Amino acid sequence: MIALIGATAPAVAQQAPASQPMQRVEITGSSIKRLATEGALPVQTISVEQLDKQGITNAEQMMRLISANGTGADNMTSGNNVFGADADRVSGGGSFASLRGLGPSGTLVLINGRRIAGYGLSGKAVDLNTIPLAAVARVEVLKDGASAIYGTDAVGGVINFILKTDFEGLQANASGNFTEHGGGATRRLQLVAGKGNLDTDRFNVMAALGYDNNSQLNSNQRDFANGYQPLRGLAPDTTGTPVANQLTGAGSALGTGFKRPGDNNTYLQAGLLSLQGKCDSVAGMQQYATSLWKNVTSPLRSTYSCSYDYGGDYVMQLPTERTNFVARGTFQIDPQNRLYAETVGAHTSSLAILTPAQISTTLAAGNAYPVGGAYYQNLSAYIPTFDATKPILYKWRAWPLGDRTQKYSTDTARLLLGGEGTIAGKWDYRLDLSHSFSRTTTDLLDGYAYTKPLYAVLGSGIVNPFAAPADGQTQAAMNALESTKFYGRLQHGKTTLTQLNGSVSGEIWQLPAGAVSGAIGTDLRRESYQFRQDVDATQILLAPGNANQERVSRNVKAVYAELAVPVVKDLELQLAIRRDDYSLIGATTNPKVAFSYRPTSWLMLRGSANKGFLAPSFGQLYAGRLNQELPNGVSDPIGCAAHPGDARYCAIERLDYFSGGNPNLRPETSKQGTLGFIIEPSANFSASVDYWAINVKDRILNRTPQVVLANAAALPEYIHRDAAGVIEYIDAGWINAAGLKTRGADVGLRGRGSLPGGYRWNATLDGTWTQSYQFAEFEGQPYVEYVGNFYTRDIYLRWKHNATVSVSKGPWSILLSNLYRDGYKDQLPDAGKSTPPAGFNPHVASYTTFGLSTTYAGFKGTTITVGIQNLFDRDPPFTAHNVDEVVGAGWDPRVADPRGRALSFDVKYKFF
After folding, report:
1. Nearest-CA neighbor of 721 among 621, 638, 625?
2. Does an H or E element contain 683, and which?
3. How do strand 668-682 and strand 603-614 relate by DSSP bridges?
4. Is residue 250 classed exposed, middle or buried when 0-12, 13-18 and 19+ CB atoms within 10 A define those classes?
């Protein structure tokens, strides 16, 4: 029998005394209770001890220990963004899992094997901030599709947080993690209390309370966060600066363009500091790097402009507070049956802090700087055609308004009542009813103003847009700006989930090779979602806004069955099938077959093949549809080719399009499988390799009308035409795009043994090698390989691993940990339109860090751990990428931790 040393089984089961029979347990990925050492599926188990020794204080940090998790923008740092590809992300203010890089909605997150409500603002995935680590006993990560067992969301895999269930005593825990270079500290307090022994007292009650606090970390606290390194191919492409640059435009002081003496080129922007060669006299500003932006307009637009390193003025770790609570009561009716009640609650508050609003003024908006204003900036000395009798148009980073600060508050709770046990000594059952909700609010704390009143104040000339922040504004100007600002509740959303789940499992009949075990169960759910704007966000400059979503609900009815069949000696099949019927999107049936084969005592072969599906979320289906127009002059690529010169096709006016939800979305579907082996040549060593492959069709992505129109041949169902083929309107927003194909292998190594002097050693490695990740934006387009290449969603690295080596003797133990992330091809400056500078390195270096911790448990009831994370103070590798589409100026938070070297401590004390 292969012990697997933690590769597939929960640690608690492995450590059962030899005198006791191995307890049958339900392992993630199966509904059949069995010995923990059995199983055909790749399950990684993470203990609380591992988290404490590596300075992990929350579930988001824990995801770094899972090499199968995507290297994506699903953390709070990357989610603090307003650009580009975040249309495909879940929402700001949360942290999410993304196994295999399939996105948060493709990973199922469970607590004690049961679902909880998704994030309140989007109704999609579970926010990891709400997971109560104070009461977690272990975490099981299933690295295989599991729709045949759990239904939707389990395409990439399952993360199951298993709570303590029978704790006795009172234990307090204090943790801290403090960086050497300042900022980004984390703190945690926990209290767990329990009373009653199920065997002797027939009851147990337990409660756990946890509090976490993460301090803010700013880009200006780390030298590597620098978006202006032009010799290496990195410089910001923005002229929205704290000291305004002037713009050209009809009726403005610069007219429609200007020339410099002795220069025949016509330029479109000008800044006094740039003309004087003094851009860098203001913190965060530099001369615009025209050498890096050689497309058609940038040099002529910005040669005489300053730029602003907004990426170097970013918040790299959001200030966050979390409070989690768990209470559980268990009553043992008799030795075979028990009842239990469980409540889980969490409150999370975080601040998303963005740079001040960027404003481009126009005559039509009435916000141009007026002639005769006290701060009118006359550039006649530098530009002979400057017309001081006309107002000034300008682009400005409106620093007097303050940083745009959004507060996300999430309240989550789940109440569960259930019973489990054994009937007639052979049938295991479990039945429970639960209700959970997640409510998230967004409040604007600073940096936002009502657009029209703000523009009126700017147009009055009382505000000086040409003043540096160090020079300040007059009190009258600040009072005028303050009168335009908005403070308060912007939006809120709520999801609810009511679930009745029941299953029965046990041995059905005997075959020559052993007993056939089976399980049958049902899963009945009612899900709902609502989203409301508390104010009209369109009236507030740059405020995030979505159309209201009235409360919508859907019912899900599912039945599932599973068999564990011993075909011949040492060969077992796991067969599973599940049918889900959604009241709004229809029914789907998903099977799974898996096997485990032990030809010898030291070798096990295993594999699986299954189908999966991902149901569209409420937001994707029913988010308010907005009717909008594209600018005049849009061309229909199909119609214009057939009718050249016809304005109805080649220069369309008033082309309508819809964005938002799409009630006609189909579920994403997948076909996937694994094939691997585990070897254990001795009781002290095991190695596992599991090859996996996933194909996904009908991926649900958010697309603009321009993208849909540009791919008209591939997306005809989203372009609505009249009888003559003239486009009437376009469906944009959420659509079913083509698909993806990904392959790779997970590697696990476990070793342990003895050293001279009574020492014990233990070593682990969990790694993921991604052979291929190919993605096609739309049906009919070729699949493009993304492994090892920069991408605005996930970065698909060739190799990732987490490894540990520990040595222990008596009450002492020492742990050395290592995290490694492979390098990749960098993003090309200017999207490859210009020749990169000589100092540009097209390859981003690998990232590796080490941690060292010492634990002492020699005092009665006390365990003390002191550690250093990022032992050698490794900076994130340089990348020639700024914050557009993905946060990070000169570094990438999807790959690296910006905190640097940090000292951590963890103290546990058990009073009794």
Report:
1. 638
2. none
3. antiparallel
4. exposed
> Which neighbouring-strand residues pair with 865?
855, 906
Q: What share of the chain is helix, strand, coil (3-state, %, to 5)?
A: 15, 45, 40
71, 742 in Cβ contact below 8 A? no
Q: pLDDT by residue (tens digit) across 32-63?
A: 765 555 457 888 999 888 888 888 888 888 88
Q: Domain spans of the chain?
A: 4-219+317-354+407-448+488-625+660-699+737-910, 237-308+358-397+459-467
Residue given tokens 């292998």 in the structure block: 745
CA diameter of the chain: 100
State the virtual CA torsion across 33, 36, 37, 39 in degrees, nearest 10. 50
> Residue 307: beta bridge partners?
286
Reference 443, options 129, 60, 74, 92; nearest CA is 92
CB atoms within 10 A of CB 682: 10
Contacts of 452 (CB under 8 A, 6+ apart): 539
In this predicted model, what pLDDT tens digit does every residue of 258-289 receive, in sequence order?
Answer: 999 888 889 999 999 999 999 999 999 999 99
DSSP string, 455-484: HHHHHHT-S-TTS-TTT---HHHHHHHHTT
What DSSP character marks residue 4? G
How many Å apart are CA 265 and CA 260, to the nearest integer? 8
What is the C-alpha to C-alpha distance for residues 214 and 218, in angstroms, rounded to an integer? 13
| The model's pTM | 0.90
SS3 461: coil
Contact 338, 328 (CB under 8 A): no
CA atoms in the 13 A half-sphere facing the CB of 70: 28
Q: What would be the CATH architecture of the domain defined by 4-219+317-354+407-448+488-625+660-699+737-910?
A: Beta Barrel (2.40)
Select from 201, 37, 33, 205 the least CA-distant residue to 135: 205
**Which tokens sit at 759?**
């020492």
Strands (DSSP E) found in 196-268: 203-214, 217-218, 245-247
Q: Which amino acid, one-letter code, is at 574?
A: Q
Do 209 and 223 meet the contact criterion of CB atoms below 8 Å apart?
no
Handedness of CA 241, 242, 246, 252 (dihedral sign): positive
Give tens-digit pLDDT for 849-865: 999 999 999 999 999 99
What's the angle, vertex CA 71, arms to CA 65 and CA 74, rounded to 5? 95
pLDDT tens digits for range 645-657: 899 999 888 889 8
For residue 652, give the DSSP letter: B
Helices (H), 370-496: 451-460, 475-482
Q: What is the pLDDT of residue 4?
A: 30
Q: How far is CA 155 from CA 468, 612, 697, in A?
A: 52, 6, 12
Q: Which residues pair with 660 in a beta bridge?
A: none
What value, to the nearest 5°, has the Cα angle with vertex 721 and ends 719 and 725?
120
